[in-house]
Amino acid sequence: MRRLRACLGAAAAVGIAAAGTTALVAGSASGATTALSKRWYAAAPYLMPLDNDPPDAGAIMDATGLKAFQLAFVLAPNGGGCSPTWGGTAPVSSDTAVQSVISTIRAKGGDVSVSIGGYGGTKLGQACPDAASTAAAYQQVITKYGLHAIDFDLEEPEYENTAAIKNEIGAAKILQQDNPGLYVSVTTAGTADGTGWFGKQMLLEAKSQGFTPNNFSIMPFDGGFNGAASQTSALTNFNQILQSTFGWDQATAYAHEGFSGMNGRSDTGEIFGQSDFRTVLDYATSHNMDRFTFWSLNRDRQCSPPDNGGRTSGTCSSVAQNSWDFAKYSVKFAGATPPSTTPTPTPTPTPPGTGCKPAWSSSAVYTQGNEVSYGKHNWKAKWWTQNEVPGAAQWGPWEDEGSC
Fold it and tell me: I need a labelling partner for 228 at 20 to 30 A (CA). Which of 12, 14, 63, 355 fits?
């Protein structure tokens, strides 16, 4: 999963030592911060701050109203050892680069969560000898940055290692106990059935240790998925797995369930457009799910030149979009309204005699460039769409071509 999570490059990371020793209190280097509502941490999209052409977090906040970011990924050192690094190369203890990003976000009223693990690299659960030492390594990250939230991204190949998963789940439980109020998410692979054998074993390990995070999230992509319907089906199936594993009723299971998607073209060539995100967002909110996030903000922009889904990139979505369109769905999940970033154009008068295009149909499928008429205006599709009323959303799939 998430094969585009390239190893972080060796970033300049010489400077300030870890600040402070008290959990959930930011040291002076990272800047004191008040926790956001948990819904914002639940909505935080992933951002690689040191690789994959990192976008300007402040600019994203201004354009979308986003307040929280999920920074990725903390790993064990590439050369071995049980200490936290960014991407295996940049020690957290001497980091200034990521700290600068965090300071920028907090100065604008936002905050961050940090994600540990991901696809590839050596995880601390693999490198550390037990849960206590794994937790101590992660506590350095919490203390250094004054974190109020953390994400355990447990996927292959680590989640195939029973001892490593025992360390990770044990560490998560320790951190939850030692940092009151810490928001903890656990993210793992998604399948059509909800999650696979290793994901189910991870849930059983959590049950055996008596650990309950804020949510268990699945990633329904890179597994033969085909749009939103297949993703919501997987979420429904995962809900049943949570019920049977922990003895929860349906509502309680949804309250501990999360979605982590991939915007645009996935590693395996699946396409998830904005209409898919809208459908899953509606499912998540209507079922009172705890989390809605995606991989990644580095990809939340159109490729240049546009490639119409022909390749998968770590720095663009490979679908038609405006920059940060997908981030707006996270803002909506948090309960906020994204600002209008595109001025409403003045309609160009239609020359006399220009007729209306064929009437829009809710059942028809339209692709980029298709034209329809609706509400005595002609509209042109900006990307693939179905059953999305022209003009219903200011950042929707239809471009107003004027009255007809």
Answer: 63
Residue 251: strand, helix, or coil? helix
Per the listing, tokens 């052409």 go with: 53
CB atoms within 10 A of CB 153: 29
CA-CA distances (angstroms) from residue 165 to 132, 202, 260, 311?
13, 7, 20, 33
Tell me, yes or no, if 158 is annotated catalytic.
Answer: no
Could you give the CA distance from residue 174 to residue 327 in angstroms, rounded to a whole number? 32
For the chain, the C-alpha Rg in angstroms (whole number) is 22
- Only one residue has tokens 């920059």, namely 323
Q: Convert the pLDDT of each residue in 74-94 to its tens digit.
A: 999 999 999 999 999 999 999
Q: In this structure, how many other beta carbons lie within 10 angstroms of the beta carbon of residue 307?
A: 16
State pLDDT tens for residues 10-25.
Answer: 333 323 223 333 334 3
> Residue 375 — left, alpha, or beta (φ > 0 → left; ψ -120 to 50 → alpha)?
left
Q: Which one of the listed residues 155, 158, 257, 388 is annotated catalytic?
A: 155
Say if residues 115 and 153 touch (Cβ distance below 8 Å): yes
Residue 343 CA from chain centroid, whole number: 28
pLDDT (0 to 100) of residue 134:
98
Model confidence at 372: pLDDT above 90: no
Report the DSSP beta bridge partners of residue 365: 386
